[in-house]
C-alpha cells in the first residue's frame, strides 16, 4: 500500500478548498489526526489495533480541542469523519506515524 497517497489526499482536502472535504476512511482519519497532533506539539497518539475508529476520533478530539497551532480546516475534517464501521489496523497506524512525522 502506498501510504503517501493518504498524506497527499488529506493535504489536498484541507488546503485547496474553502471548506475541508470529508475524510472517506480510517486511514485518512489517522492521517489527519497525526498531522493535527504534530501541529499542536503533542506526542503522537498510540491507539491500539482493534480500537473503533469512532473512539479514536473522539479521544483525539478531546485532546486536540482548544490546542493552538492546529489548522482549523484540519480540525473540521477530523470532526466531520462519520464512518462507524472501521477499526484501527496496521495500515492506519502506519499512516498515523507517516503523517505525524510529516506534519502538514
Name the helix and strand elements from N-terminus to C-terminus, one letter apiece.
Answer: HHHHH
Structural class: mainly alpha
Beta-strand percent range: under 5%
Average pLDDT across residues?
A: 95
Poorly predicted runs: none
CATH architecture: Up-down Bundle
CA radius of gyration is 12 Å
Largest sheet: none
Shape: globular
The CATH topology label is Methane Monooxygenase Hydroxylase, Chain G, domain 1
The rounded distance between the terminal residues' Cα atoms is 21 Å
CATH class: Mainly Alpha
Number of domains: 1
Strands, count: 0
**Count of separate DSSP helical elements:** 5
Helix residue percentage: 55-70%
Brief characterization of the structure:
By secondary structure, the chain is mostly helical. It has five helices and no strands.
How would you portray this structure in words?
With 104 residues, the protein is mainly α. The protein has one domain (4-102): Methane Monooxygenase Hydroxylase, Chain G, domain 1. 59% of the residues lie in helices and 0% in strands. The protein is built from 5 helices and no strands. It has helices at 4-15, 26-40, 53-64, 72-80, 90-102. The longest helix is centred in the N-terminal third of the chain and has 15 residues, at 26-40. The radius of gyration is 12 Å and the shape is globular. The two termini are 21 Å apart. The model has no long low-confidence stretch (mean pLDDT 95). InterPro entries: DUF3837_sf. This is DUF3837 domain-containing protein.
Amino acid at each position: 500500500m502506498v501510504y503517501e497517497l493518504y498524506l497527499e489526499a488529506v493535504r489536498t482536502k484541507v488546503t485547496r478548498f474553502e471548506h475541508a472535504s470529508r475524510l472517506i476512511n480510517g486511514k485518512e482519519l489517522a492521517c489527519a489526526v497525526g498531522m493535527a497532533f504534530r501541529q499542536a506539539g503533542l506526542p503522537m497518539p498510540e491507539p491500539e489495533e482493534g480500537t473503533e475508529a469512532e473512539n479514536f476520533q473522539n479521544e483525539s478530539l478531546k485532546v486536540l480541542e482548544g490546542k493552538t497551532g492546529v489548522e482549523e480546516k484540519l480540525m473540521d475534517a477530523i470532526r466531520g469523519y462519520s464512518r462507524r464501521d472501521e477499526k484501527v489496523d496496521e495500515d492506519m497506524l502506519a499512516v498515523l506515524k507517516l503523517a505525524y512525522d510529516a506534519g502538514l
